[in-house]
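User: Here's a chain of 331 residues. Predict its fold as tokens.
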Amino acid sequence: MRYELADHEWAAIKPMLPNKPRGVPRVNDRRVLNGIFWVLRSGAPWRDLPNAFGPYTTCYNRFVRWRRAGVWSRLMNALAGAHDAAVQMIDTSIVRVHQHGACITRNRRQSMGRSRGGLTSKIHAVVDTNGLPVWLALTAGEAHDNRLAGKLLSRLKSGTMLLADRGYDADWIRALAATRGVWANIPPRCNRNEPICFSPYLYRARNLVERFFNKIKQCRRVATRYDKLAANYLAFIQLASIRLWLRVKSPRPRLATVPFEPEVRNPTCRTRWANFGFGTLGPVFTEHPNRTSRQRISVASAVTPNAKSIAASEDQAKSSVGVDATLPPGF
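Assistant: Prediction complete.
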């Protein structure tokens, strides 16, 4: 069935689950986890859980009990313990609260805020160099982006580069980063008087945190908040993050890729790559195992100019860069 744990994912997560040496043995953990992940991905109510996963009450009770016991938090911390701390990015994302999740007294205690679009919640996340989550938090939707910045950035390591948008351009955030030996590469606001060291080139890597939110919002239980309790909703966010970490920790076996090369390389492209120090043969094209023959032909033709441009650019490349005329066949 869809959304179930693969064998390599289950092998990675099984040693980290709590054991029960005494008493009545638990129901099959893998079946229960598959039911929880099915609800996470499909966004269906617990009562609509398919019979293949057992009673829905078993999956729901296991989800709540392990949330109260801190199992999901420990799994998240264990998987994110070996994250790449060279670059870390912080950002937020707003989620709409469904009407079924809003009927609780004193919604403020459940991280629900009323904004122009209705009740909303805001997800705060810190990701590493590869766009994988490290720290997660939840606040009301109308809360400022940097409300939890001090808490989330308190564990930054020395020598890390912090990437954030203008919402985090505050003097106390830059001072906090400086005291921990972190360079905050944050674009300055337009009302700043003193110059700020900022690199737009390095700032372009901040799209990884946006892509992280896009990945976890493919889970319908995260894209829309149906849970009344903020702890349950945060647990679903942690489960979606755990699934991302499992894909990295235990990569899915793939077919071996077969390298191929176009019949004719563009000498102009070869000249540009030689100027950048990548050699005179230019980039190497790799065939994707799922790519059809028609797509492979289109890729090869996209980098193959016509005969006149080949002859003209070949002479120009030889005169400007001094490319050896004795190239391997097919170049």
